[in-house]
């Protein structure tokens, strides 16, 4: 295998672990928060856990793009560096605009 193939395999492995970790953390927070909410609907802690779970779920794809950006810079694959910058800019803009509406 050449170095590009090795780098892409390494990137795929990292992204896979990142996605599994993000979804797992999110699922745990959501399950615990939901269980707590069902036991005590007025609990602020349950709402916090549910919110953290949702943010973890939404943040996982953003983190995936950021990790991809770093790896593409290391690989000096400038087309994908530019592409991931554009995608990251769109994601960040979406979050900023959404938070301004709160």
Topology (elements, then pairings):
Blueprint: H1 3-39, H2 44-75, H3 78-100
Helix pairs in contact: 1-2, 2-3
Output the keywords:
about 100 residues, 3 helices
Structure, described:
The chain has 102 residues and is mostly helical. It has one domain. It contains 3 helices and no strands. The chain is elongated and about 55 Å long. The protein starts with a helix and ends with a helix.
Biggest sheet architecture:
none
Mean of residue pLDDT values = 92
Number of helices: 3
The fraction of residues in strands falls at under 5%
In short:
With 102 residues, this protein is mainly α. The chain has one domain.
């Amino acid at each position: 295998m050449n170095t590009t193939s090795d780098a892409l395999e390494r990137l795929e492995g990292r992204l896979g672990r990142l996605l599994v970790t993000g979804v797992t953390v999110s699922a745990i927070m959501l399950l615990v928060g939901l269980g707590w909410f069902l036991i005590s609907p007025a609990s602020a802690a349950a709402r916090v856990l549910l919110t953290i779970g949702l943010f973890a779920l939404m943040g996982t794809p953003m983190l995936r793009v950021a990790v991809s950006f770093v790896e593409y810079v290391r690989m000096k694959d400038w087309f994908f560096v530019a592409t991931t910058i554009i995608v990251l800019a769109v994601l960040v803009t979406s979050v900023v605009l959404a938070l301004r509406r709160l």
